[in-house]
Amino acid sequence: MAAPQDVHVRICNQEIVKFDLEVKALIQDIRDCSGPLSALTELNTKVKEKFQQLRHRIQELEQSAKEQDKESEKQVLLQEVENHKKQMLSNQTSWRKANLTCKIAIDNLEKAELLQGGDLLRQRKTTKESLAQTSSSITESLMGISRMMSQQVQQSEEAMQTLANSSRTILDANEEFKSMSGTIQLGRKLITKYNRRELTDKLLIFLALALFLATVLYIIKKRLFPFL
């Protein structure tokens, strides 16, 4: 049966993967962001929240690793934690680079707007609409991944409950078998005792019959042969 601790580890890993994907999608949104600065600020706020959730889950996985009984399983989980930490640091580096790229792009667009006027404004509007559609598509994909992971977590919980019920049924059956075994052993002892008693009774009957026959023969002898 899967231990609750193993289920918790699996859930932590699934959540870490989900938050990692969401962070990467937001970083891509920042790279594609063409302004204004308020939009960039809003994206950065979301990234910070996701990093906080990701860091919390990694810490939970690390704590679960330290609580493992087997050293081999502990080392495997600690290696996974280390990999997740490296991936998070890589995402943070990508985040900083994306911010720098976005700010440069916003500055360049603002300068170009001053030079080109209305044509650039229309082009920028079209670009923002395209980016908005791309962002919406990415968000929908992430939502689908999130729903799928939630279903997997629910299935894991149901499987754990089913295994727990099966374990209880097996334990109950084992107790019944133990009770039946005790009853069978008691019956065997009673049968053995009865067989011994029956043998003793047969022996006593044989001795009584022999004594009776000896007595009869003695009486016949005295009646028929009194001179002997």
Outline the fold blueprint:
Blueprint: H1 4-32, H2 37-66, H3 71-116, H4 118-224
**Which second-level CATH architecture of the domain at 1-115 applies?**
Up-down Bundle
| Major sheet attributes | none
The portion of residues forming beta strands comes to under 5%
Structural class: mainly alpha
* Strands, total number: 0
Straight-line distance between termini? 92 Å
State the helicity in percent bands: over 70%
- The H-and-E topology, N to C, reads as HHHH
Which of globular, elongated, flat, extended, rod-shaped describes the shape? Answer: rod-shaped
Please work out how many helical segments DSSP would assign. 4
Q: What is the fold-level CATH name, i.e. the topology of the domain at 1-115? A: Methane Monooxygenase Hydroxylase, Chain G, domain 1
CATH level-four homologous superfamily name of the domain at 1-115: t-snare proteins
* Radius of gyration, in angstroms, nearest whole number: 44 Å
Q: What's the CATH C level of the domain at 1-115?
A: Mainly Alpha
Give the low-pLDDT segments.
none
Average the pLDDT over all residues and give the rounded result. 82
Domain Sec20 C-terminal: 134-224
Family: Belongs to the SEC20 family.
Organism: Lynx pardinus (Iberian lynx)
GO cellular component, one term: SNARE complex
Characterization of this structure:
With 228 residues, the chain is mainly alpha-helical. It has a domain at 1-115: Methane Monooxygenase Hydroxylase, Chain G, domain 1. It has four helices and no strands. Helix 1 runs antiparallel to helix 4 (118-224) and helix 3 packs antiparallel against helix 4 (118-224). The longest helix has 107 residues, at 118-224. The radius of gyration is 44 Å and the shape is rod-shaped. The termini are far apart. The mean pLDDT is 82.
